[in-house]
Amino acid sequence: MEFQQMRYVVAVAETSNFTRAAEQCLVVQSALSHQIARLERELGAKLFERTSRRVRLTPAGEAFLPAARQALEAAERARAEVAAAAGEIRGRLAIGAISTVAAVDLPVVLKQFRLRHREVRISLRTSPSEELIERVRQGTLDVAFLGLPLGVRPQGVRGRELARDNLVAVVAPDHPLAGQEDVDLHRLADEPFVDFPAGTAGRAHSDAAFAAAGVRREVAFEVTAADMMARLIRQGLGIGMLPAAFVPELPDLPVVRLRDAPARVEHLIWSRFRPSPAAAAFLSTPGIAAPSADE
Of 53, 109, 73, nearest to 288 (Cα)? Predict the structure, then answer.
C-alpha cells in the first residue's frame, strides 16, 4: 500500500468526485483512478460505489478512511517534527472558533502567525463550542476558541481561560428598548428572540439566566452564527443576547445592559497530547500565549 494511494482515497472521499479529487492532488484522473483500482485489488474490496451521478464510500471504504487519514496525518506530523528539529516550523494548523470570539482579535493573531511561519498551512472552522471541543479531542482541530457558561469547563482537553464577560441585549435601532441603559430579564419576557440552537453552549447562557429568573421566553429564530443573528435583529424580527465584548462588532445595533446578566467564559483549548510544532508555535503567539500554567 502506497502513501499516494491513501491520499487519493481521502481526496475522493472528501470531494465525492474523481475529477475534483484528481485536480486537488495535481494528477490526471486516469492515474488517480488506476491507483485506487490497484489498491482495491490489493485489499480485495471495493472502496467506492461509482455511478453516473455520484461516488460514495462502500462499507469497506468507510472502514478504510479513518485509518488512511491517521496514516497521512502521522506522515505529515513526522515531516513537521523533522523540520522543527532543524528550526523550521511547517505542516498543518487547524483552528476552530465560535462566531462570537472576542477575547482575542483572531484575524490579527492569524496574520501575525502567518508572517512568522509562512510554511504552515492554516485552516479555520467556525462551529458551536461543544463541536469544537469534540474535534480537538479527536485531533481534527489543533486548537479552538470557545465560550461556555460560568462554571462549565471543557473536558478531555487542555486549555486555559481567556476572559470573562456578561451578555447584553441587542435590539433594532427603532426598538422601544433602544436608548435604555439597563433592564431586567422580566422586561424581555414578551419579546421574540433570535438565539443560537437549543442545546448549544451559546444558547445555554441565556436559557439558564431566564430559568433562574423564573421567566419564560420565545425563541422565534435559531441561528448558528452571530452575523445572521444581527441581520434578523436589524429587521426587527427579534432581540438577541450577545457578549458585551463582541457587540462593538455591530456598531449600528443598540445595546441594552441587563441587571441580571448571564456570564460567559472564553477558553482556548488544545489536545491533551503533545501539540504539533505548528500548534505549539501558535500557542506561543503574542496575544494568546499562556502567562503561566494550564487550566
Answer: 109
In angstroms, the CA 152 to CA 145 distance is: 15
242 CB neighbour count, 10 Å cutoff: 30
**Cα–Cα distance measured from residue 229 to residue 216, given in angstroms and rounded to the nearest whole number:** 20
The rounded distance, in Å, linking the Cα atoms of 242 and 171 is 11
Assess contact for 216 and 189: CB atoms under 8 A: yes
Alpha-helical (H) ranges within the chain are 3-15, 18-25, 29-43, 59-85, 106-116, 129-138, 201-212, 226-234, 277-283
Cα separation, 164 vs 183, whole angstroms: 21
Biggest CA-to-CA distance, the chain: 71
pTM reported for the whole predicted model: 0.72
Determine the Cα–Cα distance for residues 178 and 180; give it in Å rounded to an integer: 6
Alpha helices in 26-58 (DSSP H): 29-43
pLDDT per residue as tens digits for the range 185-232:
999 989 999 999 998 988 888 898 898 889 889 999 999 999 999 999
